[in-house]
Amino acid sequence: MAGFWVIAEINPDGSLARASAELATLARELASTAGTEAHGIVVATEPSAAAKELATYLGDVIAIADPSLADHAWAQVAAQRAAEVIDTSGPTAILTGAASDGRDIAGTLLALLDGAILVNATAVTWAEGSGESVEMSVFGGKLITTSSFRDGVDVRIVTVRPNVVTAETASAPGTVRTESPKADLTLPSVAIVDHVAAEGAAAKIDDARIIVAGGRGIGGEAGLELVQQLADRLGGAVGATRAAVDAGWIPYAQQIGQTGKIVKPQLYLALGISGAIQHKVGMQTAGTIIAVNRDPDAPIAEFADMLVVGDLFEVGKALVAELDARG
Amino acid sequence: MTTVAAPPTSSAGQYRLTDEQLLLRETLHDLADERIAPRAAEIDRSGEFPEDIRQLLARHDVLALPFPERFGGVGGDLLTQCVAIEQIARADTTSSLILTVQGLGSLPILLGGTEEQQGRFIPDLASGAKLVAFALTEPEAGSDAGATRTRAVRDGDSYVIDGTKRFITNGSVASLITVFAVTDPEARTSKRLSCFAVEVPSEGFKVNRLEHKLGIRGSPTAELSFDGVRVPVENRIGEEGDGWKLAMGTFDRSRPGIAAQAVGIAQGALDAAVAYARDRKQFGQRIGDFQMIQAMLADMDARIEAARQVTYKACVEIEAGAPDGARWASIAKLIAGDTAMAVTTDAVQVFGGYGYTDDFPVERMMRDAKITQLYEGTQQVQRLVIARALLGKGG
Amino acid sequence: MPLNIVVLAKPVPDPAAAAEKLGPDNRLDRSASPSVINGNDEYTLEAALQLVEAHGGEVTLLAMAPAGGAETLRKGLAMGATRGVLVTDPALAGSDAWSTAKVLAAVLKDLQFDLVLAGFDTSDGVGGVVGAAVATLLKLPYLSSAAAIEPNPDAGTVRVRRISGSGFDVLEAKTPALIVGTQLLGAPRYPSLKGIMGARSKEVSQRSLADLGLQADGSDAVGGGAARTEVSARRTPPARGAATVVRGSAGEAAKAIVALLAERRLV
Asked: What is the ipTM of this complex?
């Protein structure tokens, strides 16, 4: 078994993405069960900080500095650099994130390395004989499938959802080795010619522990302020349904649901959200779901832990007061 | 000795919805759910003509549906038009009226107008740039259309129209009005009237008032007065005396549309009632599990399906030129209108007290349904038409 | 200058029908639900239609699906696409992402295009990896997570606004290129009635594996028989119990919420 490889994603500030720390933890556990090694790869203009952080989770980290990434799109470059160092001499599992960057690099590696892929994993295990087992939630959450790779497939790529494992550092930090780019890039490059900052970049919801979300019922900016207040008190991020995004109250980056993000926070507080299927699939696996809605028959009652029937503004303000009183 | 009518021998009345009709139905179903239904309660509450819906329908070629392709229309046959009307009416009756009246008002021109007249009037109607209204009814001439008093007197190369029309849908928003007026007061009923395409605004034309109605509140129902309105001869549709025939011919083709509208209203009410029965819990279970509710919903569904099928069949028969087209049109409208009234009333019943409030759409649907038993010929008039087809004219 | 755009459009089980299921062979049972064009592909189709409305040109729908897929593509034709290309072959049933990418790449090799547009992911697979794999196989510039697409046909380039952690990156590449879109491209139009009536006269040509020079067996095989992954088990997730319903004053409700949060150590 040639090993488990994690392709790390980097935050804009150069630090290691939380989802990659989780992947590294997962890879380490799988490698230990399989009796093989886990490796991490960091490809960036300046990979050292993230590589050092990744090494607290993995025994072996390869840092590749590619200056072209300063003004070229990441995934195809990173995939080619990763392909230069990944040892594919035996069954090799490559773990990536399941969001945009992870998908981009996974799809590129699939073609570069002539491999196989399973996507959107909610669990990955390894067993003697059968190898990797990947669980995926399908059909809007109605079914969970367990899939595996057929014999004779060496390169096995899995894109993994956030919050599948909790990131846990290894008992002792691993080592970082530096590699330079080995060859010219064969795939056409894509230049980054400009950056546009989004107005009011909000806390990312992708791996937030706590999310307070507003739906159609919040009515507008005033309601959004209440949602933000509650998020602040609870130490969480602000999410929204498609209705709120379409109405222009909140950016698309915070949309949860079928055409937005799928999240798995420990707490999902839903204000003025009916719980229709398009939204439900985005949050139904949250640890605790609390909904506030005027309608006692809202569909969200079927899968929430608690439904508060009432006016979300009154209840929301009372909740803010109650949380403040606790200090 | 009268004989029983021979059994039908032609296969003209077979139909399946084509792929286009299915895609059209699906498209309008989505359009109605996503863009029209959310506006329905507000349209009813404000009583304002939904100009935004009219633009939406025009943009998606819905208003082009009743018109020939050579004038910018889509060339939809009667069945296709009814499929479209039903989907819109499911979401909002007022919005569906925009389409049905565009058909109703223009039918005299399509049936009796010259190619030149059609070329002059139809393109703007097909594009939805202009709306058309149908003006037959008067304060003293409702079911008794023969009692029409509005006069059109020939004067050189024009006619001068004087009189009052009442209950004219779109009367205040139309740019073109097909007006039925007496040109020969001495002639018998079926020859007294002529039809004119009156372009408005026009000197002497006035919208006196709009009715405050039980339902279809967003549809402007106007009283119009014609005080020496001059209309060029080129705007007379057909020959002098053709008016009655044009009006009756119009109804034969427009009544299925009203039937489709009624089917749509009923379907919308059933959908709302079913969703409610699924969610609403009383006595520890959802009310949809109670047999009395199940019986009501089942009866509603069966009646709607029956009304729908007779409406589709009527479309096919009329389009094929069946000699008893009038009977088919009236049967469809009779059955569908009564179905809509019964189903919407039962829908309110399923909702219980909540159904009586405007928190839910069924009370509006019930109010809207009533008109389908009244306009384009009351249910009683439909019965007269059917009876005449069975018995022949009185001797 | 006119643009030639290929839009990848996958027929999928209609999510609104909520009737998706796996067959006894653990493959998707496509007969269980009506088939519709994948929702995210309608966004990229809309973007393509707007681009050819602005620049001139044509939109071709490309799908790999069972034979009924031609009917599913009708809506895309009614929205305004010029033609459809359907790759269909019984051997393709049960294909994995790798096969799909190889087959699509093989078709695209024979098509002329300035842009290939792919949806963010599919409602049945939720993978979002096929676009990157196809771009790599064809050595096309790959631009993903597009919120806006601006081709410059005269210069032979395209710019894309890519959603990033802090807003947008503006990417630029030479055409032909492959772009993965997002919902931010703009809501898809309803087909106009004229479009619906006209769709029948638009061509949907078909390709089989043999037409593409591909095989279902052998070392370079594609299709279900060559799938490199398989579903070995399935289960329904445990149902969540029904919610505790709290009524009463806002103050009482707030206390009940906090009590639950405290119990679960969330505050």
From this structure: 0.92
